[in-house]
Recover the amino acids of this structure.
């Protein structure tokens, strides 16, 4: 009976463990992700790393979340306070500074052909990869 219980427990652990995200250390992050974190968030430490087959979700010590693909390319940065504007091309950064000088960026999504930026004042702005303005929308 004990063997049957142990086999059942092992099978359940393997079944659920294989499908669940795993919590890893920074050792599991690709070098590109580590380089990005060091350059973009100096002085902050990694609080946690969650990974699955296709991506990594990193939580920093200031509660900023950074999502990476499997190769370590950043896909999104989210914060309750502020995301650094220098993650965008200078053209996009200049646009934001000139039109929204006192408004924090709360999220940047790095898509294949664009950057989607969510501001604290509820504007969502899309920039092309070269930083040129594409569109903006009010998100209430």
């Amino acid at each position: 009976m004990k063997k049957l219980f142990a086999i059942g427990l092992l099978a359940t652990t393997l079944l659920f463990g294989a499908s669940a995200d795993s919590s890893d250390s920074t050792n599991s992050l690709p070098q590109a992700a580590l380089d990005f974190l060091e350059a973009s968030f100096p002085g902050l430490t990694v609080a946690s790393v969650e990974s699955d087959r296709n991506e990594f979700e990193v939580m920093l010590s200031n509660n900023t979340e950074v999502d990476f693909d499997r190769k370590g390319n950043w896909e999104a940065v989210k914060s309750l306070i502020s995301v650094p504007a220098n993650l965008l091309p200078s053209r996009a950064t200049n646009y934001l500074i000139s039109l929204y000088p006192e408004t924090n960026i709360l999220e940047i999504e790095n898509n294949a052909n664009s950057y989607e930026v969510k501001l604290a004042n509820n504007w969502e702005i899309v920039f092309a990869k070269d930083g040129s303005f594409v569109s903006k929308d009010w998100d209430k």
